[in-house]
Design goal:
The chain is α+β, with helices and mostly antiparallel strands. The protein is built from twelve helices and seven strands. Helix content is about 50%, strand content about 10%. The protein is globular.
Length: about 375
């Protein structure tokens, strides 16, 4: 099935090439990382060493130092287990080499392991009598070559078309409206994002992940990133249906998943507007200092031109995002305040002494009564 999909996407010659690579021992070792009975421990050690000594390795244009021992261990274990919890800012901590060789590799392998286990479970359900439920290592190689790699290549090309960044530069220095200088990090982003989404990995190139315009440049890229998260879980349902010889069973399971998704989406939408009691709108404006800014405006249903409500300006903290402020802003709005939550993904420049232009370092958020 995987080879047929590859042939459809890339042609028979490419499919034949991948089948040839599958039989090569060197490719097998690259995919599985030479893992044996202690594969997990070996991968943790390798990933940790790469991060500890990233300052000695190539593709480090910003000259980042090696990670501390605890952060390197935390990151290695997190990405190995498909948890992908980030206790760091990607563009301010990791070299390009670490992003590509350590993290992206783990994104492929950890996702492949999960799909291989799922395949074994499906075979166990579908087979009445069998001496085995497949070969894990063969499954892992085939999943990587026939599913994850082709879809990642397609996704990367689409994201490049949409304007996602892909280079080996340290970044660019932009001139602000006031004539100041602002450094904006760049790097191999487009090659990392598709597999991050396909494996539901997390671990984006930038600290704010898809909230960063270089990682999510257009509305279409935003939709496709959400779509990529759903591709493999949906496909596995039909893999189960084909294995048990019942597509109807697959459609039933998929319909239940869709119902749960719509239910969760509806509940989240209801919560985001406090059951319709709060109107949430996105606004863009230019400040007196000629800065372009974006924010979300939370307006209670009882606030009108005739009955105005007091206002609050909410500013995210150092590692916070606009979503982090959502619950606080909704609660304040339910209590009768008009809240404007400023989007921190829009870079600011200018005098930092002005409260309207100052984030709240070290805090989840700061609020200013108006």
């Amino acid at each position: 099935m995987g080879s047929q999909t590859t042939a459809f996407l890339f042609g028979k010659s490419c499919s034949a090439l991948l089948q040839h690579l599958e039989r090569r021992r060197c490719v097998f070792r690259i995919v599985v990382g030479g893992m044996g009975d202690r594969g997990a421990q070996q991968l943790v050690v390798r990933t940790r060493v790469l991060k500890l000594f990233q300052d000695k390795l190539p593709l480090n244009p910003q000259g980042f130092p090696g990670l501390s021992w605890d952060l390197a261990l935390n990151t290695a274990v997190s990405f190995l287990t498909n948890t992908n919890w980030q206790s760091y800012g990607g563009e301010t901590t990791m070299s390009h080499f670490s992003q590509m060789v350590a993290l992206t590799y783990q994104n492929f392998v950890s996702a492949g392991v999960g799909i291989a286990v799922c395949a074994a479970v499906v075979r166990g359900i579908a087979r009445n009598e069998s001496s085995s439920i497949g070969n894990f290592w063969a499954d892992l190689v085939r999943i990587t070559l026939y599913v994850l790699l082709p879809l990642s290549i397609i996704g990367a090309l689409i994201m490049l078309w949409q304007g996602m960044v892909q280079n080996f530069d340290a970044g660019v220095t932009a001139t602000t409206l006031e004539g100041g200088k602002q450094f904006i990090a760049t790097g191999p982003v487009a090659s990392q994002i598709p597999i991050k989404l396909l494996g539901t990995n997390g671990g984006g190139f930038f600290n704010v992940n898809a909230a960063h315009p270089f990682e999510n440049p257009t509305a279409l890229s935003s939709f496709l990133q959400s779509f990529y998260i759903l591709i493999i879980p949906s496909a596995l349902v039909f893999f189960l249906g084909d294995a048990v010889g019942s597509r109807r069973h697959a459609w039933t399971v998929w319909a239940v998943m869709l119902a749960l998704f719509i239910g969760g989406f509806s509940f989240a939408s209801h919560a985001e507007t406090a059951g319709g009691k709060v109107e949430v709108t996105r606004i863009n404006f230019i400040t007196d200092e000629r800065h372009e800014m974006s924010a979300k405006l939370y307006v209670p249903d009882n606030a009108t031109e005739e009955t105005p409500a007091p206002g609050i300006l909410a500013l995210p903290g150092g590692n916070a995002s606009l979503e982090n402020l959502s619950a606080v802003a909704i609660e304040l709005s339910r209590r009768g305040y008009v809240v404007m939550a400023v989007d921190p993904s829009i870079p600011l420049a200018g005098p930092r002494s002005s409260p309207s232009l100052m984030w709240a370092p070290g805090r989840p958020w700061t609020i200013w009564p108006l």
